[in-house]
Amino acid sequence: YSNPPLPPQYVVHERPNYSEVPRPTYDVPKVPEPVYYCPNFAGLESHCRPSKDCTVWHNEVFSYPNTACKLSDGNPGTCCPDLPCNYKGTPFKEPPLCEGKIELDDHVECLDVFSVNAASDVGEFELRLQKETAKRLKEKGIVVQAASPRATHARFSNPSEQARNVTTEAFVSVNTAVVLVKRFKIKTDQVGCALHRFKLSETNLDSKCNTVSQAHCSCSEDKLNSPFRMIDGSCNNERRFVWGRSVSQYHRILASDYDDGVWSPRKATNGNTLPSARLVSVALMHDVDQPSESTTIWFMQYGQFLDHDLVSTPEMSNEDGTPIVCCSEDGKQLDEEDRSHGKCLPIEVPKNDPFFSKFGRTCIPLIRASLACRTDGKLGHAAQLNDNTHFLDLSLVYGSDDKKAGELRTREKGELKVTARQGGPEFDLLPPLDGASPCTLPKEVSGIDPPSDVKCFKAGDGRSDVTPIMATSQIIFLREHNRLARALAQLNPSWNDERLYQETRRILIAQAQHITYNEWLPILLGRSKMTELGLLPLQSGFSRDYDQHLNPSILNEFVGAAFRFGHSMVQGKALLVNEQRVVEKSLVLRQHFFKTQEHYIPGNLDKFLIGLATQPSQKVDPYFTIELTEHLFEEAGKGFGLDLVALNIQRGRDLGLRSYNAYRELCGVGRAKDFDGLSDLFAPAIIQRFKEVYNSVDDIDLFVGGVSEAKAEGSYVGPTFQCILADQFLKLKRGDRHFYDLGGQTGSFTEEQLNEIRKTSLARIVCDNSQVNDIQPMVFKMPSAMNPIVSCQSSSIPRMDLRPWQEAYKPKKYWQPR
Ligand code: HEM
Ligand SMILES: [Ca+2]
User: Fold this and answer.
1) C-beta neighbour count of 239 within 10 angstroms
2) Principal place where this protein is found (predicted)?
């Protein structure tokens, strides 16, 4: 491994002409006398570079003396070595549906296609039954109450029309499988082998699910040769067209754990039901304030931003799209008969619950995740559906299907629709969502009557305005798209709307991928994990990393547990902070779910942005703010909401995740034989609490175990989550034919373009799309001597030059939607 030559702006000149860096007036850590020659780190030569290129070394650089330096023009930079050598890690394989040559019991051998067809009638019957139940409930007036926490959760997890249709199909085949398992008394470990012998196309279920199976997804040459991604993520893999497409299934790294081998939630190892998810949440998860010393809330927020790009697990709904009721209005269990459609998985609240008992509530509603049609086209256990594209492709900005993408475009000059505000494009907000419930604040909270111009926001993903800072992150990426489109239009006056839109989209996605792998992931996973798997971006040249055999799809383990680590980092309050870094206002989360009103106040977006770079994230630990565990989606004035930790635990069971111990084993941490075997990674007090709620160490839910682990070296999370997260981000990099630094693909950038993309940082996107004047170059890290607040004009926050896009790139052929 040899060091590539340093780009000129990184080279420190002997005695630079020190022009005074504009200093902010507020109290920031004093910048020590900068050095001109960078010290060595453990024998590694280091150079002065823009700080954002030192994220992977942050922990060392932070505690090392003399690491604040000056770039060639005198602006602050950071001394750090080159990115370390990347190894080529091995991703986990998907577990086989039928492991080895399991001998099927004789009576299971008799299961033939006629039995499948007979069972499919029952599957169809279940569907009719469920429609009947929905009708009866409606007639009885048992419907979801507007503005209730349940209604807001339904809005958050709302399926697309396509997802609804697919789920209806998949529901029949899953029920068929359930019936067969019962009729033939198939043992759980034989379910895979027994069922996967049947292709749906060879049974009466033929018409089911055929829209999504590999066989029915076609990709024309134009699409395959396009330098631009399809909006729905299809045709990325040249042979497996559906891999990563929206409305396709999640995959797994361990076989599912369902009690019946198909869809019913796992039981405790002793055969009893598992402890209630709310009981586990109360016993283990408290609200203790443990802010990070060095990481800002931007780190949490960018995590949620990625979450909304990579995944959307819609809940099941009634046929007409209305939400399903799973607990009565007063928070009690529904009668058996009213839950007979099988789509409910409500959480039982113990009678003596310290919080919900005050409101007499014994039931927290949860609706089962939408079912996917299996991409292998076979009969088997339940698979769940991702409504977004699985790739890191900014589907939350652009949409995951052509219809939505079309609605978001102006069809002029490649731009996206906005809500224009006074002052110009740097004040634009997200466009309005028609017909949605009001996103205004009640008068008791804001002190004023709800203004008539305040609208809910619309974006590529339906959760864009779930919190004010989520909306903030969406807004700056929206503005960046339009800013880039305007700049490209100036450089290339001949480009039409489509070309401008696609080229801009390609650049913005590349920027997001670069920020993720260069600035964000190093903090999450730590340097050694990044290098071990080969996740670090290159400093120059092209990557040859693409593996056409690797399925990039999101894993159940990732969406159902590991990537929810972010919930532990959430702060109960969002801060509006001014340029002097003085907190002007603090918003209590429970009052601001799906409220956009604050964004209509001039100047607030900048204050949210500075707040994001000022407030610390919470650490990842078994502690969660009560805004999420008691007041999630609270209805104004009611005093209670939902418990997100309980929802996470229950969702893990819904998605068929194995218990925590199985993933410890997979990840090489080693299976714990008993509770005390956890002492390598858990505090004694936590083990004690595990013992109180779980019957066996093999019962612990993955989410619960994951957030309670001691941190892996250099990582923001423990080793088991680190391992699952790293595996997913490896698949997203190596399994994406359009990954930004790949060479030799139709969609590859030129080297000059790529080097410009590499200058991207989140700080630059903040600076270029707001009125913020000063910010630290590494926005995921607190300001410090090696990350001082600098002017947005400063070269400490490098700028991309778009000139390499000036007619330089002439695609031979590219796909254009009609
Ligand atoms: C205030 C901030 C947040 C709120 C209010 C919130 C709320 C929620 C809710 C209500 C769900 C659905 C639960 C279910 O029905 O299963 C969810 C899922 C999820 N959250 Fe969060 N979340 C927040 C922040 C984050 C962050 C910071 C991350 C990651 C870094 C994250 C990652 C996830 C993931 C991966 C899922 C699963 C998504 C899906 O299946 O579609 N969340 N969140
Ligand atoms: Ca996506």
Assistant:
1) 10
2) secreted
Token code pair at residue 514 = 């670069």
Ligand nearest to the CA of 345: 1
Query: Which ligand 1 atom lies nearest to the CA of residue 563?
Result: 35
Q: Which residue has the least CA distance to atom 15 on ligand 1?
A: 647
* Ligand 1 close to Cβ of residue 462 (< 6 A): no
Query: What is the residue with the minimal CA distance to atom 40 of ligand 1?
Result: 313
Residue 33 has pLDDT above 70, yes or no: no
Give the pLDDT confidence score for residue 263 in this predicted structure: 97
Name the catalytic one among 58, 251, 308, 481. 308
C-alpha 463 – ligand 1 centre gap (Å): 10
DSSP 411: S
Ligand 1 atom closest to Cα of residue 311? 41
Answer yes or no: are the C-beta atoms of 58 and 778 closer than 8 Å: yes
As a whole number, mean pLDDT of residues 754-765 equals 97
Burial classification of residue 293, based on how many CB atoms lie within 10 Å of its CB (0-12 exposed, 13-18 middle, 19 or more buried): exposed
Provide the 10 A C-beta neighbour count for residue 492.
Answer: 18
Residue 148 C-alpha from the chain's centroid: 25
CB atoms within 10 A of CB 288: 12
Burial of 102 (0-12, 13-18, 19+ CB in 10 A): middle
State which amino acid sits at residue 84: P
Whole-Å CA distances, 41 to 61, 281, 602 = 9, 44, 46
| Residue 312 CB less than 6 A away from ligand 1 | yes
In sequence order, the 6+-apart residues with CB closer than 8 A to the CB of 221 are: none
ipTM (interface pTM): 0.99
What is the three-class DSSP state of 295? strand
Of the given ranges (10-14, 69-73, 402-406, 441-445), which has the lowest mean pLDDT?
A: 10-14
Pocket test for ligand 1, best of 297, 307, 632 (most atoms within 8 A of CB): 307
Hey, what are 301's tokens?
Answer: 């927020």
**DSSP 8-state assignment for residue 359:** G
Active site includes 390?
Answer: no
Cα 302 to ligand 2 centroid, rounded to whole Å: 14
Please list the residues that pair with 296 across neighbouring strands.
Answer: 616
Contacts for 490 with CB less than 8 Å, ≥ 6 apart: none
Chain-centroid distance of CA 49 in Å reads 30
Identify whether the C-beta of residue 301 lies closer than 8 Å to the C-beta of residue 473.
Answer: yes
Take atom 32 of ligand 1 and give the residue whose Cα is closest. Answer: 564
Residue 234 Cβ inside 6 Å of ligand 1? The answer reads no
